Sequence to fold (357 residues):
Amino acid sequence: MNLGFRLLSSLVCCVLVLPAAAKSQANDYLSVLEQFVSDNAIAGGVLAVVGTDMDIVVKTGFSESVTRRPVTGSTRFYIASTGKMMVAAAILALVERGKLDLDGKVWPLISDLPDIELLEGADVVTLRQLLNHTSGLADYLGEDFAEASVGEPEKVWSEADAIRFAFGEPAYGSPGTVFEYSNSNYVLLGHVLKRHYPDLQAALSRMVFEPSGMRSTTVGATRGASDLAHGYATEQFDADVSAQSWASVLGDGPVVSTARDVAAFMLALLRDEKTVGSELIEEMLRGSEQDESYGLGIVIGSDEWGDWYGHSGGYDGFEADVRYYPDADLVLAFTVNGDVSSDADLLDQVAEIYFSN
Fold:
């Protein structure tokens, strides 16, 4: 690790006085974060470890390459598909209120999208199938969309404009018969939310961000804000690819947040039930017959330390991941402003430190 990274590395303890064991763990968390950032040639990152006996945030590196502005615990990162959990939670909140039917066809809610009949399977898919990726719908996020977005990196894509890139593409299979992760599902879910609120920001703020105490989280971001991490696509940090991510307001990846806010969301959703009640949480955490490891917008996992729930996300210049271990009441969350290339899993390393002490 070079001296620049070492000088910018630091630790933020959200508890004023930590027991000696917790202080030791905090230093260990910082060390693995520094190593992860260095190994992947990432500009910077933040790691949150939040549980009943610990509330620690560690950070390293810089958020912007020209000025070498340091990452802080309040630095906001684009979290890509990690935000799908928040969109799913908002949808389920509307189901709980009787505004949506989880197993009803979604067609009446999306039929206003121009030429949507060209999306194979859209007329029969259900809300549940969109949430758990068993819709079979083709993914709009392919090479054609990537080429178009590179040409207009600051364009704010509408659901109507984005979903067109899936028109005419063959479905992965009949709805309910196949699991295939498709970002089109969550673009359509974002459109459904906008039938009840003026925009996705209003929907997620009302049903997710505010109940969860997520004070630093937004849909999209405004260029120039001093608390934003810029995303970099090269080891030289000379390819700033932030614009497209900051402009994202589609339901498949709309959120800019802090590691601490992401952790707060997980606790509010799965422990405190502040966004959705227990009955629908059980639905959310149940995998499908086609894939038991994916519920309604959330990954269902386990390791030697126990069962966990979460979601990773990544797009050019940004990566994020979060896990909640319910038996330990523990959340692990990280955000970085670079592309992860190594096979090392940061959250595996952090979990080993926590559970081994």
